[in-house]
Design brief:
Radius of gyration: 20 Å
Distance between the termini: 35 Å
Structural class: mainly beta
Strand order of the largest sheet: 2-1-5-6-7-4-3
Number of helices: 4
Number of strands: 9
Order of helices and strands: EEEEHEHEEHEEH
Strand content: 35-45%
Length: about 190
């Protein structure tokens, strides 16, 4: 499963209308079943088309934005008609259905709805063939080249990945590498 803490397109189809919107708040949260979060600004009462369509149709497609089409992703934030069920340029896409939503209220201004979290279950996955490893279990970040929105108009690239094996406590204990690692809690810890 690829991590989705990157910029994504969210596509929703309601009747004859298609809504395409870039999203910064997209994340995979579980692998079985595959669940993804999408964050929306504002509440249900002031929902823009994407949130309104998602709650009405309960279906969407999440397309991960890659570096080779970041300009197009940025242009998608303009209010323009787009007719597609998946972004052709996307190296990785997920078709999903709405699992649940949760609306949030401002802590600073009680009563003001400030956001909605949508959880989407991934039903079908599409990965460009050249982006998969030999046993088709991982997507190569050097080919996917996902882009993340860092805030404002600042973006970041992910082009490399590295593996970091999880340590095994029993194995470390046998080699005396655990000495001094576990200590009793101290006050105010």
């Amino acid at each position: 499963m690829a991590t989705l803490d990157h910029l994504a397109y969210l596509i929703l189809i309601k009747g004859k209308s298609t809504n395409l919107a870039p999203f910064s708040y997209t994340q995979v949260i579980k692998h079985d079943p595959p669940l993804f979060t999408i964050g929306f600004a504002g509440g249900f009462s002031s929902a823009k088309d994407t949130l309104a369509n998602l709650t009405a149709t309960k279906e969407c497609t999440i397309n991960i934005v890659s570096e080779h089409f970041i300009e197009a992703a940025n242009a998608a934030s303009i209010n323009a008609p787009v007719k597609c069920s998946r972004v052709k340029e996307a190296v990785f896409s997920i078709e999903g259905k709405l699992f649940s939503t949760q609306e949030f209220e401002s802590r600073a201004t009680p009563g003001k709805k400030t956001g909605v979290l949508a959880i989407v279950e991934g039903l079908r996955f599409w990965v460009r063939e050249d982006a998969l490893n030999e046993d088709q279990s991982l997507v190569d970040p050097a080919i996917r080249r996902p882009v993340s929105r860092l805030g404002g108009i600042m973006y970041g690239r992910t082009t490399e990945a590295f593996e970091l094996p999880r340590p095994d406590y029993d194995e470390k204990q046998r080699s005396k590498e655990t000495e001094g690692l576990i200590r009793p809690k101290v006050e105010n810890q």
